[in-house]
Every structure is written in C-alpha cells, then in structure tokens.
Design goal:
Elements: E1 2-5, E2 12-14, E3 18-24, E4 29-35, E5 41-46
Antiparallel strand pairs: 1-2, 3-4, 4-5
Length: 48
C-alpha cells in the first residue's frame, strides 16, 4: 500500500518503508512514524 512521499527525501513510501516507534507521553502512549531511508519523523498519533 502506498502511503505518500517523505517530505525530506521524496521517496514514495509504502507501509514497509515506515517505522513505528512507540513512546510514553505525559499521560498516554504515542506513536511516531519515521521514514526508514532518511530517519525523518513523518508524523505522530495517539496509541489506540
């Protein structure tokens, strides 16, 4: 599945090109989405 382009390296990203990093915020857990090619943080989400 194609997700879009990385804003830093312009690689067309599929679900295999994005790394999910889970971390604990102040009150809830969050997920950071990172491009595997250039290690740029693409976005964030709250843990479901």
């Amino acid at each position: 599945m194609i997700l879009g382009k990385c804003p830093k390296c312009d690689k067309v990203l599929s679900d295999k090109d994005v790394k999910d990093v889970w971390y604990k915020g102040k009150t809830r857990a969050h997920i950071a989405y990172i491009c595997k090619k250039c290690e740029y943080i693409i976005g964030f989400a709250l843990r479901p």
